Input
Amino acid sequence: MNTIVYNGDLVLDGQTQIDGATLSNNTYSFSNPSTDVGTATDYAKNTVVLRVNGDLTINSGVTLTACASSANYGDPKGLIISSSGTLTNNGSISMAARGAKAKRENIYLYRNKNGTFEYVPAIGATGGASIEMSGFNRSTNGNNGNNGFNRQTGGGGTGSGRAYVNRIKISSGGTGTSYSGGSGGDGAVRSINGSGYGQISLGGTGNPSGSYATYRESVVNYVARHGTGGLLVIDAKTFDNYGTISADGVSSSTSSLSNSNGRVDTGGASGGGSINIFYKRILNRGTITANGGTSITGEGR
Output
């Protein structure tokens, strides 16, 4: 763990620099991406822990989050925020698009009086089911990933696709892990014996997201979206949330058509993360979300 400790009350006002965090556009990103996040060859190294021995206040318009990977290989292995006093959130606490590239494992958070444990399961919800299809000029949108239960992260969605004549199989969305919502499956198109309209198939959203494949078509206005919902744990003596707390997944990458005879099939969106809040006293619940991203459907002929 990368543990950052503050003794005394801490106010995140969007203007004051805080040790252990980078401040940009009213957003405090805790931890260090050079040591804590995943790379092309390695898993994420650390969970980020922010421990405040006092009250923690996030002002309106201010966001508290973990650092992000500049190369889109996932983020730290979760964010734990602990306050010995009152945690007051008037802004945003977010692990949206902050899922980690990490080995899955059960994450034990709390032992109940009866000896059972509250924990985030190593295996999250399953992704949207794969799709097999054949026939003339048939198309389909993807399947939603499954919802997580009992602290699970959510599954990733299936991509969209079209079969012109040949059989087509669209891969399933990814299963979530304890540190990340599931990645989205790739979009797919199968032509008529190598002929047919122009085609663009976009990769699913993940850490990082898939790229794209083209046939008789040029990619225009391509927007690659990366990331999955991450892991967030909050522990406070008193919890008072007037703002938003989120660990949402990320929507599909998009592209436009370069001509009216082409078709774009998008990949699936990524699954939401896992939010776990422990407190002795609650004043306001506020808005708390761990939704999957939105999958943009296929378009064109």
About this structure: The chain has a mean pLDDT of 90. Residues 2-99+228-251+271-289 form one domain. The two ends are 51 Å apart (CA to CA). Helices lie at 33-36.
